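Question: I have long wanted to understand how a fold can be written as tokens. Here is the record:
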Amino acid sequence: MADVIAQIRKNRFVVVGRVGMDLFPDVGVAVEDAASFTADMGGSSANIAAGLVKLGAEASLVTRVSADAVGRFCRNKLAHYGVDARYVRDEGGEARNSLALYESRIKGHQSVIYRNRAADFEMAMEDVQAVEYAGFGALIAAGTVFAAEPSRAASFEAFRLARAAGLPVIFDVDYRPYSWPSAQVAEEVLSQAAALSDVIVGNDEEFGFMAGGIEHGLQKARDLAATTATIVVYKMGENGAITITKEGEIKTGIYRVDALKPTGAGDSFMAGMLSSLASGHDLKSAVLRGSACAAIVVAKPGCAPAMPYPVDLEKFLATHAGPTEIT
């Protein structure tokens, strides 16, 4: 584990996966009733990268964007959040950027995702082969990159190149059924990606999905930690998380807040955990700080704009009553 954390402490991350546009109406307003929308950056990988940069890391994104106004919007937002876009390429033709519409409300919450002919699925071998992996400390990927070709093969190539350069692979399972051709393909491919990863983060449903049933999810996480992975974080929603290593298991709670929405929590958790490990926190503290970042994001509109800066995180931790107890 020491070698993996030493690499993370370089605080320079290459992140593979999509950037898109988010549209969200005012707090409490349904999409169908909205008179206006706020536009900002979306996409799990881009959100993770933005969250890392806001917390003091360096992050470069590897993906493709549509060669149109929405693609340029995404590039502008990456620049706004300080995410390096040198490995972002334009994709012409009929490819379009991912678009997400979601609401800032819990009761009756609706999210509508448009992923037809997604530009990021056109990421190819030459995109990942152009990355100078030796200049980074770790590679991060969200599971959606494996949902279609040529992005799937390119992402596995990125894993191979990163590992060859001595970088740990950090994998957010991030299973989105609507992106995949079938559940069987998703189970096989995500399991293959997990077996190649050093740090794996997922929720109970995602591990259960890879294991063939939610009741087998925790054992799947334990098996990965015992064999191929160094750190596995098994998230259980309001029931907290179990972080599993070869040295044992750590149970942590959540920071309760008045949530406005369910979206963005996982991306912010990943950014908070990794940035905390990079700044010298031990594993339990890093997971708790990731949980605090998740709580901050669900209590505000938007995803990338809601992610905290260090001052926001420290203020939250200083004023909150603390995490729930998990036995």
